[in-house]
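Researcher: I've been going back and forth with a colleague about how DUF402 domain-containing protein might be arranged in three dimensions. Neither of us has a model we trust, so I'd like an independent prediction. The organism is Streptomyces tauricus, in case that matters for your notes. Sequence below.
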Amino acid sequence: MAEGEAVTHVEAGGSAAYWNPGSQILWRYRENAGDRIHIARPVTVVRDDSEILAVWLAPGTECVKPVLTDGTPVHAEPLESRYTRPRTVQRDRWFGTGVLKLARPGEPWSVWLFWEPGWQFKNWYVNLEEPLARWAGGVDSEDHFLDISVHPDRTWGWRDEDEFAQAQRDGLMDERLAARVGEAGRAAVEVIRRWGPPFSDGWQHWRPDPAWSVPALPDDWDRTPAHVST
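Model: Here is an independent structure prediction for DUF402 domain-containing protein. You can compare it with whatever you and your colleague have in mind.
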């Protein structure tokens, strides 16, 4: 996955513009209150234009995820110490069904679609985060803990409110950022209530191209982009 691979054109300064469908890129997250990349997921581009970036995270994809230094999974650690114990990263694979990720330019959230086996649609998941920063090899963001689950009957509910509160207590986000995340969440809820895009766009009926290969995790998955854009 060399920088610039399968990109339709590159803007001045070297940041990626639009990728062709079928391109393989990285979808990454920085650690909170830090600069290190601690989540990296190779994905295949479904659509990329001025309205939306849609990518497919295929089952079995090798990814990078954070763990505690003793190997304990992050979510197995009690909430009170989950964000204060030392961490490292490890390679793992995305098992189960794949995930379709959708992000509109500049929005402080992405929308993920999940299915049960047999392509039974399960739910949408609104992941509150920094707007994606694009670079030649993919996109980077920072997770903001608070999420929203949206069900096929259009009902919805907040997720991970306890983690959002704990992150503030542990100094991973200040009051200003927490307020901005709360505002973003309320804006996302308004989109859900009026059933705006991407919920109204029929993405739950989408299926991946069977000819696509599962992207490989590159050795330099944590490389620092020379230029980024939003």
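Researcher: What would you highlight for our discussion?
Model: I'd start with this: Residues 1-15 have pLDDT under 50 and may be disordered. After that, consider the following. The two ends are 21 Å apart (CA to CA).
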